[in-house]
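cache lookup: miss for this entity combination. No prior model stored, computing from scratch. Input as submitted by user K.M.:
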Amino acid sequence: MVLRVLGKMMIPFIMLFALYVQFHGDYGPGGGFQAGVIFAAAIILYGLIFGIHNAMRVVPPDVVRVLIAAGVLLYASTGVAGLILGANFLDYDVLAKDPIEGQHIGILLIEFGVGTTVAAVMITIYFAFAGRQR
Amino acid sequence: MAVTVLAIIRLHNLVAVVMLSGFYSLLAATLFVVLDAVDVAFTEAAVGAGISTILMLGTLALTTQHEKVRALPRFPLILVALTGVALIYGTADMPDFGDPESPIHEHVAPRYIERSAEEIGLPNIVTSVLASYRGYDTLGEVTVIFTAGIGILTLLGVRRWRSRKPGPDTATGDEDRNAAGGDRA
């Protein structure tokens, strides 16, 4: 009971913190890898407290599996977008008129890709392990 | 940290070993903070102490909690000891800790530190290097994680999730729903 009440209170803040780490990684410590893991930790905590089947209802495994690939694709297509706009692969200068703004957009996009893939993979691994029990 | 490692070697209860390795990761994270590598410390605390402990516990739940004690294997022990000695001998050639003349500080690092503010415009140089200068490497890292996820899916199976009907695990959830339904009724 205590766990469930505390969990309900904590999980939104963990997710918020994950988003903060994700999008504030440019200015402070953090980035996609850490944010993805923290976000996954929130889902896993939910799964531990309320049962894995409830967690699977909140975050359907099918969707998570698509997200695994979506993150990598977002990252790679950011690189390809640079190619199409006439620069090197993963060169973000050309993504906006101002090179620095382009770098900002590029880094934000690829970090988001990283975070998506990391979170999705961690959740999938947890589902795969915990879903097999008994 | 050394005490933790010795305890990990000594213990045969794997749950305790997993807990201690999480603790070790936390200690390593504090070490990284002391070395001013906040990004690395962050990762170590989140991945090493957090997620991997849970995943290891999940593995233990699928396998067993107790280590099978066997006689100490001689040959691997000698091999590991020799490798360790060779590695320690190798560190004798390394530049002193914090030496400004060491190759690592004279290669690309000064350029990153001097130019990244005007080229990338981010205060966190770690992010600039990771996401922009070394973006190709990071793409590789993400692909590694992607591959790991696909591997786990392949090994542990996916279809079983779908075919399985909600079991006794969901009892709490069902109660919730019943309670909610009752309220409405």
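stored under new cache key. Residues 2-130 of chain A form one domain.
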